[in-house]
Amino acid sequence: MIRSRSSLSPGSRLRRLGPLGLPALWGAVAVTWRLTCPAAQQPGVALRVATGVVFLGVGTGLVLGIRHGLARELRRMRVIAHATQQALLRPPAPRIDGLTVAAGQLSASRGAVVGGDLYEAVATPYGVRVIIGDVRGHGLAALGAVVAVLGSFREAAHDEPELGGVLRRLDRALGRHLREAAVDECSDRPGRAAEHPAAEEFVTVLLLEIRSDDEVLALNCGHPGPYRIGRRAEAVSTGDPLPPLGPFPLPADLSPYPCARLSPGDLLVLHTDGAQDARDGAGRFFDLEAVLAEAGRDPSPPPAALVRRVHGALLRHTKGRPADDVALLVLRNDRPRVPAQPADPGCAVPGLHPPLTCERRVS
Questions:
Q1: CA 179/CA 181 separation, integer angstroms
Q2: What is the pLDDT of residues 279-288, one digit of tens each?
Q3: Which of 128, 269, 279, 317 is the most buried (most CB within 10 A)?
């Protein structure tokens, strides 16, 4: 619940005005002395200097008091913003159904902690489901779209047996948000017709489902595809792209595309287009694939270290001033595999020498 200033308690008001109390008292005494004391009415350089010093001190105290109050308010707002980010774009669990997960975000706005990028990974009865997306909008409207899409995903990922059903739920949630935003804008501007809510705002989304057999299925709505790091770093095709959520209706057929198999030790790197579109001072694009290929020379690097490495390379490339928000989500397959066991009767193939062995997976 957000309280207005008028609802603050008297004690809170006094604490806010506390830093101004001493300078105000000092100023009141100085003004009273100047107006009522006979000695203060006498002309003289010394008296004028003393009066100037007094009023300079009062002014300095008032400025410092106001500055102290503003700094305290700024610290309070940063704490609130950090808590908002933790609730909205919360860090994923470090381990999800045998996958090691890490995520991170770079903001193009100095001091910003929440932007238009979104990501999440959850374990469901149908496999690990992952989303990464980018809202094409601005201001609080973009943040509202992030809330609508993420909130819908966290619920639909557990409820919908098919990945296409999850995507339709996201599309409906975003549509409701955009319609409500258009109605609110129209009510704030009477006499002006609201534009179509999808005219200026849409969301690119990549949905993945990592099944227990390590197969990766994808539905891509206009979002950059992921990279897989195994023996080498390579871009992963996600099939024919669907339109971004918002401007156009989804097609009737939403069959997921079997895009890859994530072998034990392989990493899957999801990103927003801020990583590929980042430029240096000469206008050269950031070579994300080359950075991932260099990182992949280490055997199965930890996801958190890979996120830090890419962020560091991005900041060096852009001289610490990225033009767009950048979100990264990295998953590594750490599901254990039991070594091959001696053949048992259920796996024997008649006439085959040596006997066939069975390899068992532990999920």
A1: 5
A2: 888 989 999 9
A3: 269
pTM of the model: 0.71
Judge whether 94 and 121 are in contact, CB under 8 Å: no
Q: How far apart are CA 259 and CA 278, in angstroms?
A: 26
Rounded to an integer, the average pLDDT of 269-280 is 91
Residue 179, both tokens: 């319609």
Sign of the alpha-carbon torsion through 159, 164, 167, 168? negative
pLDDT (0 to 100) of residue 359: 44
Superfamily of domain 93-337: PPM-type phosphatase domain (3.60.40.10)
Please name the residue that has the structure tokens 């017709």.
193
For tokens 């099944």, the residue is 211
Average pLDDT, integer, range 65-73: 75
CB 253 within 8 A of CB 235: no
**How many CA within 13 A on the CB side of residue 203?**
35
| Distance, CA of 155 to CA of 141 (rounded, Å) | 22
pLDDT of residue 306: 95
Q: Taking Cα atoms as reference points, which of 204, 209, 214 lies closest to residue 157?
A: 209
Among 143, 141, 166, smallest CA distance to 155 is for 166
Q: Residues for the chain: how many in total? A: 363
Which segments of the chain does DSSP mark as H helices, in order? 10-36, 45-88, 139-159, 163-188, 273-277, 288-295, 303-317
10 Å CB burial of residue 312 (0-12, 13-18, 19+) is exposed
CA diameter of the chain: 123
